[in-house]
Design brief:
This protein is mostly helical. 28% of the residues lie in helices and 6% in strands. The protein has a single domain, classed as Glycoside hydrolase/deacetylase (TIM Barrel, Alpha-Beta Barrel), CATH 3.20.20.370. It is built from 15 helices and eight strands. Strands 1, 2, 3, 4, 7 and 8 form a six-stranded mixed β-sheet that branches. A two-stranded parallel ribbon has the order 5-6. The chain binds 2-acetamido-2-deoxy-beta-D-glucopyranose (5 copies). It comes from Lentinula edodes (Shiitake mushroom).
Length: 485
């Protein structure tokens, strides 16, 4: 059956407006996790937890055949981590492959060699439940940590926008009507000049990224990326970082960029300002504790950002990165995250990706795509299909991490090595404020700007069509189906 992804997704969207967070669902511990206590309480009953990481559910790696019936083959030189099923077998019911060890084990004191000014890795992370908020839940905002981080907002003009209803468009007609004024990306694709959404002036360049890890199959992806000498940006979830610290270290030490993707993966526009600070702050702290570095970039889950979320993020020293929408409103979302729940087929997701490459080929800028390393299915889609399709394309696409494809050196990706006075905070405006709309004056995100958020931020908004409505509600079905696994 030939599926039209947008048609299918539209129908699903209409039927599923509820918000459920798929990250609440956990699976068996990964080989390299050193935080068994963090996962033991929530491991799914059907999973086999293994501290050695060598056992999994019903099948072993031998139960998964390598892709031989696919439109695109793995690059010829790939020898490890390239075992993946035929496209049609990447599905919600596929057997769980054994998780793989990290590509390299690093010891405390080791330093990344691919950029200068990097601090050595801290002493190995030891999970202590008392040190962290509950995983995958909104952190308590009364903690001393959150109250301290709130002080980072002092002197910043955080727009006084009420939280959205649930971060989706269907539930919130009032805020949809005001989406342009509040710069709400979710409903209409409104961006500001401080947002990173493309690789400027680099046609045929894919700013490659993966969201929601570090997770059980991230190591498989890392083996593939490292063998192909592909570097990517990982938008890491704090709750996953403390669970899989050695996978996070493997990402970072392998030369991939590390960015913040919140603690519990909520729709940030729905939260209070203190809750947003807590979500970003705890993830930043987890990454700092494990890697010794503090990211200067973040991605809002579901791309759910408005001027309030932007201002808070920038005040905390993190530049928002979303994914590309074309001028005609095509959102570069592979919907790979809906394969595990059976909401979208692997064929439909890959067809969607081929459409993305087709659209990307026409752009004057490079592009950014939403993909995930959270699930086995999404990793197999990446290593077996989407990444090879881009590499084998004629002409081929160039794959780079998002910071790099934006001209941001590794040193600027982390506070500790960042000597750039204009990144992440652009203080180049005539009134000393933060210019987000490119009109030369500080605006919604400016330090003590006197201009109102509504008037100044309107100028830089970019209207696209509302395909973004797909971005979220489908998770209800995904979560329900994954729970049933
Ligand atoms: C911003 O304004 C607040 C109160 O209006 C003031 O306390 C603070 O010092 C100001 N910050 C700067 C950087 O001017
Ligand atoms: C762009 O994406 C849309 C939606 O997926 C698709 O219908 C269209 O064919 C794509 N354009 C190209 C040139 O591939
Ligand atoms: C500082 O960062 C900005 C924004 O990314 C960039 O345009 C500029 O080239 C950087 N400057 C230096 C010296 O790295
Ligand atoms: C912004 O830049 C100006 C000029 O470089 C400088 O005088 C001012 O102190 C800066 N303001 C802030 C808040 O960093
Ligand atoms: C619409 O957005 C503007 C700018 O953010 C804000 O000032 C205004 O209060 C909003 N209006 C409504 C009705 O929410």
């Amino acid at each position: 059956m030939k599926l039209q992804p947008f048609t299918v997704l539209l129908a699903i969207t209409a039927a599923n407006a509820t918000k459920i967070n798929p990250l609440h669902i956990k699976r068996q511990a990964t080989a390299s996790s050193s935080v068994s206590t963090a996962t033991s309480a929530t491991v799914a009953a059907s999973s086999v937890s293994s501290s050695s990481g060598t056992s999994a559910t019903s099948s072993s790696t031998t139960g998964i055949s390598t892709g031989t019936t696919t439109a695109v083959g793995a690059p010829a030189s790939a020898t490890w981590g390239t075992s993946y099923p035929p496209l049609s077998q990447i599905s919600s019911g596929m057997p769980s492959e054994v998780t793989q060890a990290v590509t390299t084990t690093y010891t405390a004191g080791a330093s990344p060699t691919y950029y200068s000014g990097a601090d050595p890795l801290p002493t190995p992370f030891v999970f202590n439940a008392a040190d962290w908020p509950a995983q995958d839940k909104l952190p308590d905002t009364s903690s001393s940590e959150v109250q301290e981080w709130m002080e980072e907002l002092d002197g910043w003009d955080i727009p006084d926008l009420s939280p959205t209803v649930d971060g989706t468009c269907v539930s919130d007609p009032a805020n949809v009507a005001n989406a342009s004024a509040r710069g709400w990306w979710t409903c209409g694709g409104y961006t500001r000049d401080t947002d990173i959404t493309v690789c400027p002036g680099k046609p045929m360049t894919w700013g490659t990224s993966f969201d929601d890890g570090p997770a059980f199959y991230t190591t498989k992806l890392l083996h593939f990326l490292n063998e192909q000498n592909i570097k990517a940006t990982f938008f890491d979830v704090g709750s996953r970082c403390i669970e899989n610290p050695n996978v996070l270290i493997d990402e970072y030490m392998s030369g991939h960029e590390i960015a913040v993707h919140t603690w519990s993966h909520p729709h940030l526009t729905t939260l209070t300002t203190e809750q947003i600070v807590a979500e970003l702050g705890w993830t930043r702290k987890a990454i700092k504790t494990i890697l010794g570095v503090t990211p200067t970039t973040m991605r809002p889950p579901y791309g759910d950002i408005d001027d309030r979320v932007r201002a808070i993020s920038l005040a905390m020293g993190m530049v928002p990165i979303i994914w590309t929408r074309t001028p005609s409103g095509v959102s570069f979302d592979t919907f790979d995250w809906e394969i595990p729940g059976g909401v979208v087929t692997s064929e439909a997701s890959f067809s969607q990706f081929e459409g993305i490459l087709g659209n990307a080929s026409t752009l004057e800028d490079g592009f950014i795509v939403l993909e995930h390393d959270l699930y086995e299915q999404t990793v197999d889609m990446a290593i077996g299909y989407t990444l090879p399709a881009a590499l084998n394309h004629n002409p081929p696409f160039t794959l780079e991490p998002i910071g790099q494809c934006n001209g941001i050196p590794y040193t600027n990706m982390y506070v500790e090595s960042n000597l750039n006075t204009s990144f992440p905070i652009a203080n180049g405006t005539s009134d000393g404020g933060i210019d987000t709309d490119g009109d030369g004056t500080g605006d919604a995100k400016s330090k003590n700007s006197t201009s109102s958020a509504s008037t100044s931020s309107n100028g830089g908004s970019t209207q696209h069509t509302s395909l973004s409505i797909f971005a979220m509600p489908l998770l209800a079905t995904l979560a329900a189906l994954v729970v049933a696994l």
